[in-house]
Amino acid sequence: xxxxxxxxxEVLIALAENERxxxxxxxxxxxxxxLFGAAVVTVWHxxxxxxxxxxxxxxxxxxxxxxxxxxxxxxxxxxxxAHATWITLVEVVFGxxxxxxxxxxxxxxxxxxxxxxxxxxPYVVAINTMPKVAFAPxxxxxxxxxxESKIMMAAFISFFPVTxxxxxxxxxxxxxxxxxxxxxxxxxxxxxxxxxxxxxxxxIFAGLKLAAVWSVIGVVVGEYMGGxxxxxxxxxxxxxxLRVGRVFAQILLLSLMGLSVFGFVTLLxxxxxxxxx
Amino acid sequence: MxxxxxxxxxxxxLDNVNKHYRRARSGQADxxxxxxxxxxxxxxGQMASLVGASGCGKSTVLKMIAGLIPPTGGEITLRxxxxxGPNEHxxxxxxxxxxxxxxxxxxxxxxxxxIREGRKAANAARExxxxxxxxxxxxxxxxxxxxxxxxxxxxxxxxxxxxxxxPEILLLDEPFGALDEFTRxxxxxxxxxxxxxxxxxxxxxxxxxxxAIFLADSVFVMSPRPGRIVKRxxxxxxxxxxxxxxxxxxxxxxxxxxxxxxxGSGEGASHD
Lengths: 277, 272
Hints:
The structure holds two protein chains of two kinds. By secondary structure, chain A is an all-alpha fold. Helices cover 82% and strands 0% of the residues of chain A. In chain A, helix 11 runs antiparallel to helix 13. Chain B has a six-stranded mixed beta sheet with strand order 6-7-8-3-9-10, sandwiched between helices. In chain B, strands 2-1-4-5 form a four-stranded antiparallel beta sheet. Chains A and B meet through helix 10 and helix 11 of A and strand 6 and helix 2 of B. Chain B: It comes from Nitratireductor aquibiodomus RA22.
């Protein structure tokens, strides 16, 4: 308190100058995002207009906007886009649920048993190093052209982060807490359910969030290879017809779908991991 | 009050307990004696402390009594029966409160009963847990989560959790070592009161000489490598212990005696 009275005024001025912010620092973020986006769109528009690039290769911003409006209009009036979005959403949700179930089970076996850690873990890691997309034609051959092959593809691509995070979370248990449970003569099951699993939930949710996004990728890959009625198929058809604007609009829908599943998992996480300040 | 020399009705007895680890380093096998020929016994209601420099094996001794690590030699007996693992009559607490952060304070206190006897028994013990929390001054925090507690409060909740199963022997591994000096002294006073009121038999591991003397009827001084008990000092101070004793002459004589045992006696040590 006495310090404040004896501070050299020159020091205060130096501090104030240090804190002087640049124009960019003072501008709110939303305005910067908007300005940068507008700049990109302007460059895009100028490039398309004056470079002579064909509209078939890269449509201008206005064309894309029209396609987006058409696609959204079709979606909300229950047209074919709505049907495709529904199909893809079902595939993504079931693919994600299947990935979560497989990932949690495998992760628990690996994280909670020595056999799993020693014998199964190497295989899981080996599978993960494979380019999983390359399996897509096989999944079509095994599970057909319906939604099953897409669900399996999505689960196959996204079970890994759940598995690894569950196993890592179970292994990360605080050693003092393990000692406490040992001193209480807790059996293996009690230790797993009352200590290791709750302790691992933040890890598990990190894996689930990755899986949510990856299952959209899996479904789209499945639809590229196996056709069907989903958004991936729409993208493939639009691209083959060189309707690039439609492709952009449909990809935007896919991205929103991934974001929704991600958001839902984040809500669940807030509920289940609320003890973690 | 207690005849600490008596060997008639010891409740806990350590008989030449050893613990060594084999450490392979550059081909040669290295044997590390964490504890060597540790023998002592405790009567019901007696409080003992194990004091020594860090790494002297005092925590190892405590963990062997708790059944968390097996001794490599010797025997530990509880009321004449050999201890071979964790035991419901023995409660332990650590330097960290180790409360499960996703459970309320009440659920944490009930955890030992829930694990040993199931959820039903735990619910039935709520009243007992409430009384313990009241005694620890945590009554209004029963439904709080651990992150809402201060360090001292969390450690008091850990004491309640240790006491809820009414164990005969309490083991405390540097229980207040992570707390600041003021809280620590306050916790010592409270803990002594709690132990007196239940005639608890307790072993406290600490590296604080003052804490060791303040809480104990007998202080066991341990030397490092190999960890063994070099001396037992019986503390002849009246109960209940009060903070002003710490500055008293008698207390300081004990401090000096233990200090000299642990660090050598200053100039006097030069002539061996």
